Structure formats: structure tokens, C-alpha cells
Amino acid sequence: MSDNPLFKRTIHKHDVPSQFLPEESRSIRVYLPPGFQQWISYPVVYCQDGEDFFNFGRIATHTQRLILEEGWDPFIIVGVDVDKKRRTSEYAPDGERYSIYTRFFAEELIPWVESHYPVRDTPDQRVLAGDSLGGAVSLSLAIAYPALFNRIISLSGAFYDSYVEQIRQAASLENVQIWMVVGLQEREYPTDRGTFDFVELNRKTVRLLENKGAKVKYAEKNGEHKWGFWQQELPEALAAFLGEAPPEFD
């Protein structure tokens, strides 16, 4: 079994220095695809909640299989870790650490990754992915930095009022492509900001995004607000941007 390339995943860990974050660095993990070569450039997926995407979402395992067994072109994954105690503060637009986190992400993390790994540096070759608040902040980054990001994966996005206001104030989102899913068993989900109907939050967000010209692929499926649901959806989510023949957005 140890000789099977499926079990030989390459994941590097780094601490990215920061002048914006008070702790002066942020831990990331980087998955390199099978057959990785430094002289080839690769599409890249940037994941919020990086540790969870790797440990609970098993995104590296999924990707290894999709490349080796289904013939997908290889891509790199960067998981950006977060301290769960600071997560809402960093991910929510009205959080006290939101501005420093998003500046770190766009102005420090992206240049650091691009100077250390052969990732492609155009918006259509960068994908932002996140679950719950991570999905919402991924969209938020695309609104704030349209020259950097316009491809988003949102797993049960926690689109609170502060995100909705960002979408409303955006001039146009015609360049944005976003893949969204929410679980039908997420209608009364308790959070640190109260209990929310995530189905309604996502339906409202889809309407707003479409009104702003964004291209949306949206699905409601049986599932709860947890990684058991999101992990199953990851291959389809990745296929929207990185599959052998990515489907056209509406």
C-alpha cells in the first residue's frame, strides 16, 4: 500500500510573516500535486479554515484521487489556518480583526505564496474556498480585491447582514463566478451570533449576487452544517473550476 501514489501526498507547512497581524505570522499548509515540478505553473486553491479543510474536508486526499484517477490537471492547495477563538473577529466584516486579516491575506499571503511556489497569478487561476464564515469571507475578499480574486467556493456560507451590505454596495460583480451549496437541515443553526436559517441566508445572497451580475451555481441538498456534508461536496465544488471539463456557469 505504501507504494501506491495515492498515499504519497506532499504537504508542506510554513509560517508566513506579517506586518499586519499582531502575532506577526500565520501558519499555512501547502499541498503539492503528484508529479510536481518547480518549472511548471499551477492553478491554486486558497482555503480559509485551512486545518479543517485538510483534516476534516480531506481536500488533499480528494485532489490526489481526482488528479491520479480522473485525469484532472494538477493544482496546488494552500490552507490558511485560523485560531477558532478569533475566527469571527477575522472573517466577519464588522469584526475587529477583519481589516488586518483581509489585508494580510491579499497583500502579504498571496505575494508570499507566489514568491515561494509556482502558482498562477491571475484571478481566473486562483480559487478562494471556505465553509460557513469562511465561504462568506472568501466572497468578501473577491469584492474588496477584484483584481486578485473572482472564483469562489462557498460551503454553507454564513452570509450575515454585514456581508449582505458589502454585496449591495458593490458596483458590479460581473466577473465573479461562485459555486454555492447549503444543507436543507441548516434551517436553525446556532452560532456565536444567534440562531440562523442558512438556507434563507444563501437564497437571499444568491438573488443579490445575480442582481449584481455574478455568475452563480447554487444547490440545496440534504445535509447539516458540518464537515460530513461539505466533504462529500468538495469534488463537485472543485470541478466547477478545476475539473477535466469545468461546466459553464450560467
UniProtKB/TrEMBL annotation:
SUPFAM superfamilies, from UniProt?
alpha/beta-Hydrolases
Source organism's superkingdom? Bacteria
Q: Which InterPro entries is this protein grouped with?
A: AB_hydrolase_fold, Esterase-like, Mycobacterial_A85_antigen
What is the taxonomic lineage of the source species? Bacteria, Bacillati, Bacillota, Bacilli, Bacillales
Protein's name according to its UniProt entry: Enterochelin esterase-like enzyme
Residue ranges of coiled coil: none
Q: Which organism is it from?
A: Cohnella lupini
Name a Pfam family for this protein.
Esterase
